[in-house]
Amino acid sequence: MFAQVCEYPETTVLLFIVAGLLFYVWKKKLDFFSPATVYIFFQCLTLAFAYLRLDHAMTPFHAKTWFVWGGALFSFASGCLLFQWNHSPCKTQPTENFAYNWKLHFILSCFILALYFVGIFGIIQVAGNLILFTGNAGYFASRKVDYGFYAQFFSSAPLVVMLFGVASFKSLNPVRWIRRISLPITLFISVLSVCAYPSRTTLFMCLGFAVILFNFLCKRISVLLITALLIAGIVGFIFVASARSQYGESSVKSMTMEAAMTMPYKYVANNYWNLDYAINSPTDREIHPFTYGIDFFSGMFEYFRAPGALKTSFGWDGIYNESVQKIPGLNTTGYLWEIYKDFGLPGCFLVPFLVGLGMSILFDRVKRRKTPRLVMFYVFFIYFVGFWFFLAGYKQGIFWAWGVIIWMISTICSLHPKALVKSEIQEENCAERNIAG
Q: Where, by residue number, does the polypeptide cross the bilayer (predicted)?
């Protein structure tokens, strides 16, 4: 055991941090989905996984990379702590104190659902079926097949899950018939998104949105459950590793085990080896040009075509990080590389600090008063904080579009008198009394 610890010191230390964090959250009876907890947990857990170095591309971090990664984590936590030190704990107010038209929310959500089905139609038009049920799913899900603007629609399954998911819980939505329809739609779209266009990003977002909504609107997810899932994942990984070692290096079974074990690893670890490779540019490779902070806003203006023209004229990378991928096809870098090339080293500390402070303010507002808009925006943002090791969501226009749609729907549905919500509550209470009678 001691030899294993010595062989993987970075992984061991990071897993101890994860275990200590979970214990602290459990002991203090805190919400796991608070900003600092989510950031530290996912950053440390995924880097611990990456540092197992199951692929030759995952070389040890340079000192500069550790400085950027650790400094960003410290800055984010500092932003969260600064807010906590200046604000006292609060209690959630009753949800019936807000005005919201759930019937209009349902109608607008159905309109977004219809647009999603337009995207599904685009897939079937090209592939002849849902991609998972075609004879060559890998080909139809690759970049070789262009679905045009349909992709904007069928990629929006997580938005549909968010809109119907928030309407599925009695603690927030008093209209029973809407809840009874919204919940099956949420589950159905989560499954359909995998069948229509198998994508790990879309699947994780659908599941992530649903889980976080459940945590805030139904029942807080126990840290013990999270710990059990984490242990199960580690045990499963070790089991696969042990099974792999039972076969000779030249056997077909060994190669199958190799692929089964290393592909999930590469999806996580390539974010970190690309980050180290990008920040520590070798002398024989030109470093990516400094973007002067302009590219930070590229996602906001993506549909105006201006960012594409700027990137081409200045020679900046596209969304696939062409200049910093160690292995072709494994091209993700996480948000820290995006911040580094946009704002340099100062940005790697300032941006996480500001986001940590902003997320803490939003988290506090959600605890004080759960409204559809606050809940949806917090779920939306905290998901990206958790997956920052993988995805800088603000660099993609579709996520800006989702944010605008969430804001528009929640604003339109809030422009009604408070009596609307109360009358709906009274209507349901009367119905329940009649049934009981």
A: 7-26, 32-54, 66-86, 106-135, 147-169, 181-214, 221-243, 343-363, 375-391, 397-415
Q: What is the DSSP letter of 29?
A: T
**Residues counted in the chain:** 437
| Model confidence at 90: pLDDT above 90 | no
What is the C-alpha to C-alpha distance for residues 392 and 387, in angstroms, rounded to an integer?
A: 8
**Domain count of the fold of the chain:** 1
Evaluate if pTM is beyond 0.85.
Answer: yes
Burial zone of 105 (CB within 10 Å; 0-12 exposed, 13-18 middle, 19+ buried): buried
At residue 81, does pLDDT exceed 70?
yes
How far apart (Å, rounded) are the C-alpha atoms in residues 340 and 20?
30
Q: How do residues 351-361 score in pLDDT, each as one tens digit?
A: 999 999 999 99
Cα–Cα dist 77/235, whole Å: 30
Coil, helix or strand for 330? strand
Question: Two tokens at 53?
Answer: 């170095």
Please list, in sequence order, all residues whose beta carbon lies within 8 angstroms of the beta carbon of residue 104, skipping any fewer than 6 positions away: 412, 413, 416
Structure tokens at 399: 């996520």
Residues of the domain holding 82? 1-437
Max distance between CA atoms of the chain, in angstroms, equals: 82
Identify which of 388, 392, 362, 390 has the alpha carbon closest to the alpha carbon of residue 377. Answer: 362
3-state DSSP helix/strand/coil % of the chain, to nearest 5: 70, 0, 30
Q: What pLDDT digit, counting tens, does each position of 128-145 carry? A: 999 999 988 888 988 889
